[in-house]
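User:
Note these tokens:
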Amino acid sequence: MQTKELKMAGIGFAVFVVVGFFLVGSGKESAEDKATSQMFQANAMLRSYAMKKCQLKIKPVLNLKRTIGAPDSNVPGDEPEQVVLTWNGDGSKGYKEMVCSFKTGKGVYSLVIDGETLIPESTEVVEEKGEEADAPQVSSDNDPASATD
């Protein structure tokens, strides 16, 4: 009786393994899926880095001891390497609205808090030395046809 149950368990396990190999083998990502995934990952890295750099510029202005929360809005800029972050507050933390613009290679190039421009867009702000190494590199080539397997 136990040998019959053991055989059935072995056959069930073998079927499970075969079905698993089939599912894994047939689930290959297309080049377009890979390109889309890479684009989302690059955008997430860029936004995270922009948030870190914007917070470093905002903290001394508002005299904050700890970091501010995540922005209420992450809007991509006009270019792939650009992000505009917006925080909306109730005034209790020292601001009602903050808008910080960041661009790879340029850093924070615009900071507006409650309508007051603290870093005007025309000002050339260059990232400090050593920051280029940890900055995310975003490719402006988002053509899925050019992605490789």
User: Anything to note?
Assistant: The beta strands are 73-76, 82-88, 97-103, 107-113, 116-119. The chain has one domain: 31-136. The helical segments are 2-26, 31-62.
